Structure prediction request, 294 residues.
Amino acid sequence: MTTLTHTPVTTAAPARPGRARRRVRRIPLYAGVTVLLVVMVYPLLWLLLGSFKTQDEFLNNPTWSLPDSFTNFSNYTEAWSSIALYLRNSVLAVFPALALVVVLGTAAGYALEVMVFRGRGGVLLLFLAGIMIPGQMILLPLFTVYFKLHLTSTLWPLIITYTAIGLPLTVFMMATYFRSIPREVFEASTLDGASAIRSFWSIGFPMMRNAVFTIALVQFFFLWNDLLIALTFTTQDYLRTVQVGLLNFTGQFGAVDYGPTFAAICINMFIVLVLYIFLNQRVMRGLAAGAVKG
Prediction:
């Protein structure tokens, strides 16, 4: 007697129509992201490739051509010999101003949001009014004042102007961040005998650590990339910041030497990019902290 066995036949389950429709709907999104990525990456890639080209390649080859050699670092050597002075001037002008902006702005935000006194609303409005004043309006009066004080041959005009311009936005943002801290924290420190200054340095400032990093990075990008103010107040070549130096980055007889110029821009861009990559997570945490009121 023969026993017949039937082997079950398995068939592939048909693809869900909903999944296919979702993929079709995402095609415009993927295309938009791809176009945006190309728009953002292509200029940086073109800049990097141009930093390895010689002057002859710039003048005789098409703009989209690749450099003949990727091991030619003579452009970077020549660029560094000139841009090192400009980078030093930028550091000496930006970082002292940035420190003053962060410390004074944080203290003012603490006073306007945590401390209670008559007229604090009006003071905050005065700081907000400083944001609305265009920087171009104050350049000529400031230049006259700095000239009469004999400060035009130093970096002090940049430090003072950067501090004054950066304070209004910093005060407003720090007041917003302090609003998210429960008032019971400062009330408890007052009951324990801490003064307002002790509460600020021991409680307020440490709790605002991520917010301070966020504001400091935002202000750093603004001050480091400034061209108009530095171009107005740097009357000597040895006082030029990196942005003014790149604007006047020329070779012999005033001709633009494209290879070293591209290399100098790459050096400046690399410094800013590395700083942002290392502090990116702190910036995200600082933005999230200021978005929620406690």
Notes: The chain is about 70% helix and 0% strand. The chain has two domains: 20-50, 76-290. The domain at 76-290 is CATH 1.10.3720.10 (MetI-like fold).
